[in-house]
From TrEMBL:
UniProt protein name: 2-ketoacid reductase
Species this protein is from: Photobacterium jeanii
Pfam families to which the protein is assigned, alphabetical: 2-Hacid_dh_C
Record GO terms (molecular function): NAD binding; oxidoreductase activity
Tree of life domain: Bacteria
Keyword presence, Hydrolase: no
Keywords: NAD, Oxidoreductase
Span of domain D-isomer specific 2-hydroxyacid dehydrogenase NAD-binding: 96-268
Statement: the UniProt record of this protein carries the keyword Lipid biosynthesis: no
Cited CDD domains: 2-Hacid_dh_1
């Protein structure tokens, strides 16, 4: 009999969904010493892993698992994450702000309140180039969504190969600055690894020419002082930030006071329990049948 322990802010919902799923040879436990499977929000379980001597498999309820992949933590189990669901939500977030910006929607709302008739010039989305850092499932979904609206979509990844025909071209990480020089919109979907630490900094962002910047991946990718420098110099016209090096973002942080930064509280792509359970149920059946799991995280790469 396999035993799963749930560590999540939505513990009650997951417990109900597990009961409905009626997976074979699986029962829920609250005893860490008996659990060989964990279903967990990574930040909530990260400092407790050593309390699970029987652990074989941990299913993350998030896409990002950087809280579980530091060198100091144990790696003697299989870690799987959530994939395939967040691309749609990230696309909605990015495109919502992009359309608002380029079609002046918020500005017209202000003009409405002032009863002013002032048409504004605008650019069609089909004239824009979007540079997406990270071309995994989220980045590729965003590329397809934007390509359908006419964007030229450029990707940046480790190998420079195109994982999806929606990309016009992909550059290697070492060619980042060449890609950024083309950008009207820059979107980071990067995971948190040592290779992505402060990859968007004053030097790299200086190659942008008034671009919009989105960070919907992990907060480590943006050098905070470098971003402020890029905004002051006009290389970044506006930044839309959903993730940060410290969350919640402290009230005294300078980002709050900058009119060229829009802050959202890590809500670009929520984990919906029903979707997580679809992945968990699929993977549990594979685990039960001793088959390879899907969406396994490489601890060395961090994703």
């Amino acid at each position: 009999m396999n035993k799963v322990l749930i560590v999540s802010r939505q513990h009650k919902v997951y417990r109900e969904l597990l009961a409905q799923a009626a997976l074979p040879d699986l029962e829920v436990t609250d005893d860490p010493h008996h659990a060989n499977i964990i279903l967990a929000d990574p930040p909530r379980i990260a400092d407790q892993l050593d309390c699970y001597p029987q652990l074989q498999w941990l299913q993350s309820t998030f896409a990002g698992v950087d809280a579980l992949t530091t060198e100091q933590q144990r790696r003697d189990y299989q870690l799987t994450n959530v994939r395939g669901y967040f691309g749609q939500l990230i696309s909605e977030y990015v495109l919502g702000f992009v359309i608002d910006r380029f079609r002046h929607i918020s500005h017209y709302q202000q003009l409405n309140q002032a009863k002013q008739w002032q048409p504004q010039p605008y650019r069609a989305l089909s004239k824009l180039t979007m540079v997406i850092l990270g071309t995994g499932s989220i980045g590729s979904h965003l590329a397809r969504s934007c390509r359908a609206l006419g964007f030229k979509v450029v990707g940046v990844n480790r190998h420079g190969q195109m994982p999806d025909p929606a990309f016009h071209r992909c550059y290697r990480d070492q060619e980042l600055e060449q890609a950024l020089a083309q950008a009207d919109v820059v979107v980071s979907t990067l995971p948190a690894t040592t290779a992505t630490d402060d990859i968007l900094n004053a030097t790299s962002l200086s190659h942008c020419q008034g671009a919009l910047l989105f960070n919907v991946g992990r907060g480590n990718a943006v050098c905070e002082q470098g971003l402020l420098t890029a905004i002051d110099s006009g290389h970044i016209a506006h930044a839309y930030l959903d993730v940060f090096k410290q969350e919640p973002l402290p009230a005294e942080h300078p980002f709050w006071e900058n009119e060229h930064i829009t802050i959202t509280p890590h809500i670009a792509a929520e984990s919906f329990p029903e979707q997580v359970m679809t992945i968990f149920s699929h993977n549990y059946r594979r685990f039960h049948q001793q088959q390879p799991l899907d969406y396994v995280v490489d601890f060395e790469q961090g994703y």
